[in-house]
Design brief:
The chain has 75 residues and is of the alpha+beta class. The chain has a single domain, classed as Double Stranded RNA Binding Domain. Helices cover 33% and strands 24% of the residues. The protein has one helix and three strands, in the order E-E-E-H. Strands 1-2-3 form a three-stranded antiparallel beta sheet, covered by helices on one side. Strand 2 and strand 3 form a beta hairpin. It is elongated and about 50 Å long. The protein starts with 5 loop residues before the first strand and ends in an 18-residue tail after the last helix.
Length: 75
């Protein structure tokens, strides 16, 4: 199982910024830790949905079976 680290940082102007250490492209902000965490979950979901849809588009969807493998990459 892969492990991921989410970094939460307090912003000077107020609120929080969060990003995934393994993929800094997955990031968000919020006024509170709770809001930032909820926003991060949305950003994380969108990232994986985009990755998965891109991989599915490369496959022959009329095949009886296909596999999709992808990994988080440093950006």
């Amino acid at each position: 199982m892969d492990k991921f680290t989410i970094v939460f940082e307090k912003c000077e102007e107020g609120g929080y910024h969060a990003y995934m250490r393994e993929n800094p492209g997955v990031q968000t902000e919020g006024e509170t830790i709770q809001e930032t965490m909820e926003n991060f979950i949305d950003a994380f979901e969108l990232f994986f949905r985009d990755e998965l849809e891109g991989e599915i588009a490369k496959q022959s969807l009329d095949a009886d079976r296909f596999e999709i493998e992808f990994a988080l990459a440093q950006r």
